[in-house]
C-alpha cells in the first residue's frame, strides 16, 4: 500500500495513487464504453489509451493544478480526445452521451482513491480526484464546442455551393430552384451562377422557382427583380414560379409591384409557357 | 403557460434578423395562426427587424403572447437610433432614405392587425405591432 502521511495536498496524494495504481485503473477504464467502443481492434489498444490518460492526469495532479483546464500536460491528450470524439460522433453518439461516458471514468478512480488512502487523507484526496475528473469533462466539452463551430462553418460553405443547381429543363430553358432563406451572400452566388448558365447554355428562358423560399419580404423581392432585370439584359426571359397563396398575399399587402416580370404558380406552368415561347408543345398521346 | 409570455431577442446583425424570423414563426404556430397569417406576421417582423438594424443601428425585439385561449402576438421593435423626423412620409410607399424599395414600414403596417409607432428626432424608434389568428377574441394592444 502507498505510504501516505497527513498534511499533504489532495492533489499530491491523488498523484501518488495514480502512479501506484496506474495498471489497475487503466485495466478498469479500458473496459468502459469510452475506450471499448473506440478501440474495437483489440483490448491492448484500449489499455494503451487508458494508460495515456492515467499518466496525463497523474502529471496534472503532480503539478497541483487539478482545476486548471489550461495546464500544458492536458495538451498531450487533446488530440486523442478530439479523435475519439470524431469517431464517436460519426457513429451517431451525441454530445451528452459522450460526456456521460467520460463521467463514467470517475467511479473506478474514486473507488481506488478511497481504498488506497488513509482516513486522514481520504477526504482531501477524493475532493482532488473529483476536481480532476471535472477538469477532464470541461476539456471534453471545450473540444465538443470547437468541433461544433467547425461543422457549422463547413456546412455554411457547403450550403452556399449546393444551394444553386442550374437545371436544364429543355433546349435553351433553364431553372434554378431557390430553397431556404435568401441572405445576401447566397443571393449573390445564385445570380452569378444563373447569369453564367445563360451564357453557357444559350438560354432563352430562365425560371426562378421560389417554392422552397419561406417568405418574400421587400429585400427578397428586390433581389428577384434585380435578377430578372439582369437576365433580361442578357437577352433572355425570366419567369418566377412557385408563388404560393401566402406569398402572393404578402407581396400584395407589402405593396410590391413586380411590374412586367412573368410569374407562374408552379414550375410546370412556367415550363409550359417557356415551351410555348420556343414553339414546342407537349401533347398527350392519342 | 402564463397569459403573457415575453421573449426578448437582440437585433444587431443579419443572423439575428433570421433568428427573429424563426422565433416569430414559432410563436405564431404555437398561437394557432394559419399559414397565411404566419407568413404575414413573419414578413412584417422581417421588415421591422431590418429597419431596427439598418436605420436604428441595432436594438431588440420582444415577442409577447397575448390572452389565454386564442392567443394573439405582439411584437415590439426598439432601437436608440436617430429616430424618424417625418413619420407620415416614412409610412408612405416608395419613401426611402436607404437603398430599399421604401415599402417596409407601410407594408408591415398593412400585414398586421394593429400598428403603433413612437419616434422622434434623436430619441430612437419603437414600433409595436399585434396580430390575432382569425376568429380570436382580441385584447387591447
Fold and architecture overview:
- The complex is a heterodimer of chains A (286) and B (141).
- Chain A has 286 residues and is of the alpha/beta class.
- Chain A contains 13 helices and five strands.
- Chain A has a five-stranded mixed β-sheet with strand order 1-2-3-4-5, sandwiched between helices.
- In chain A, strand 3 (205-212), helix 11 (218-233) and strand 4 (237-241) form a beta-alpha-beta unit.
- In chain A, helix 1 (10-20) packs across helix 9 (119-162) and helix 2 packs across helix 4 (43-62).
- Chain A starts with 9 loop residues before the first helix and ends in a 9-residue tail after the last helix.
- With 141 residues, chain B is of the alpha+beta class.
- Chain B has a single domain (5-131), classed as Histidine kinase-like ATPase, C-terminal domain (Heat Shock Protein 90), CATH 3.30.565.10.
- Helix content of chain B is 35%, strand content 26%.
- Chain B has helices spanning 14-30, 35-54, 87-91, 104-111, and strands at residues 5-11, 59-66, 72-79, 114-119, 125-131.
- In chain B, strands 1-2-3-5-4 form a five-stranded antiparallel β-sheet, with helices on one face.
- In chain B, helix 1 packs antiparallel against helix 2 and helix 2 packs antiparallel against helix 4.
- The two termini of chain B are 20 Å apart.
- The mean pLDDT of chain B is 87.
- At the A-B interface, helix 11 and helix 12 of A face helix 1, helix 2 and helix 4 of B.
Q: SSE order of chain A, as H and E?
A: HHHHHHHHHEEHEHEHEH
Sheet with most strands: strand arrangement of chain A: 1-2-3-4-5
Reported by name, the CATH topology of the largest domain in chain A is: Globin-like
Low-confidence stretches of chain A: none
Estimated structural class of chain B: alpha+beta
Largest pleated sheet of chain B: 5 strands, antiparallel
Distance between the termini of chain A: 96 Å
Amino acid at each position: 500500500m502507498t505510504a501516505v502521511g497527513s498534511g499533504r495536498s489532495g492533489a499530491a496524494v491523488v498523484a501518488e495513487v495514480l502512479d501506484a495504481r496506474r495498471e489497475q485503473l487503466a485495466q478498469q477504464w479500458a473496459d468502459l464504453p469510452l475506450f471499448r467502443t473506440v478501440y474495437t481492434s483489440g483490448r491492448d489498444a484500449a489499455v494503451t489509451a487508458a494508460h495515456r490518460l492515467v499518466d496525463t492526469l497523474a502529471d496534472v495532479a503532480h503539478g497541483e493544478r487539478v482545476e486548471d483546464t489550461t495546464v500544458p500536460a492536458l495538451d498531450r491528450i487533446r488530440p486523442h480526445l478530439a479523435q475519439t470524439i470524431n469517431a464517436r460522433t460519426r457513429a451517431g453518439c451525441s454530445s451528452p452521451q459522450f460526456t456521460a461516458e467520460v463521467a463514467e471514468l470517475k467511479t473506478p478512480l474514486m473507488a481506488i482513491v478511497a481504498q488506497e488512502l488513509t482516513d486522514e487523507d481520504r477526504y482531501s484526496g477524493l475532493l482532488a480526484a473529483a476536481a480532476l475528473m471535472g477538469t477532464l469533462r470541461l476539456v471534453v466539452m471545450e473540444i465538443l464546442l470547437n468541433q461544433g463551430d467547425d461543422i457549422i462553418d463547413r456546412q455554411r460553405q457547403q450550403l452556399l455551393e449546393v444551394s444553386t443547381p442550374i437545371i436544364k429543363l429543355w433546349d435553351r430553358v433553364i431553372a434554378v430552384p431557390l430553397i431556404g432563406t435568401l441572405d445576401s451572400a447566397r443571393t449573390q452566388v445564385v445570380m452569378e451562377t444563373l447569369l453564367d448558365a445563360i451564357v453557357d447554355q444559350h438560354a432563352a428562358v430562365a425560371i426562378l422557382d421560389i417554392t422552397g423560399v419561406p417568405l418574400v419580404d421587400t429585400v427578397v423581392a428586390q433581389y428577384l427583380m434585380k435578377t430578372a432585370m439582369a437576365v433580361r439584359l442578357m437577352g433572355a426571359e425570366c419567369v418566377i414560379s412557385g408563388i404560393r397563396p401566402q406569398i402572393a398575399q404578402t407581396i400584395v399587402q407589402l405593396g410590391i409591384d413586380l411590374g412586367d416580370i412573368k410569374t407562374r404558380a408552379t414550375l410546370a406552368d412556367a415550363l409550359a409557357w417557356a415551351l410555348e415561347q420556343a414553339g414546342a408543345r407537349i401533347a398527350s398521346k392519342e | 403557460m402564463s397569459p403573457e409570455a415575453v421573449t426578448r431577442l437582440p437585433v444587431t446583425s443579419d443572423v439575428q434578423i433570421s433568428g427573429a424570423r424563426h422565433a416569430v414563426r414559432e410563436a405564431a404556430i404555437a398561437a394557432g395562426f394559419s399559414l397565411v397569417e404566419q407568413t404575414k406576421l413573419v414578413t412584417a417582423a422581417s421588415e421591422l427587424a431590418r429597419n431596427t438594424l439598418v436605420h436604428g443601428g441595432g436594438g431588440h425585439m420582444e415577442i409577447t403572447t397575448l390572452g389565454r385561449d386564442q392567443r394573439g402576438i405582439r411584437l415590439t421593435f426598439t432601437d436608440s437610433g436617430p429616430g424618424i423626423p417625418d413619420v407620415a412620409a416614412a409610412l408612405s410607399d416608395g419613401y426611402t432614405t436607404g437603398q430599399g424599395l421604401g415599402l417596409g414600414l407601410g407594408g408591415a403596417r398593412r400585414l398586421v392587425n394593429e400598428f403603433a409607432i413612437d419616434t422622434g428626432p434623436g430619441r430612437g424608434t419603437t414600433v409595436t405591432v399585434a396580430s390575432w389568428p382569425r376568429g380570436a377574441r382580441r385584447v387591447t394592444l
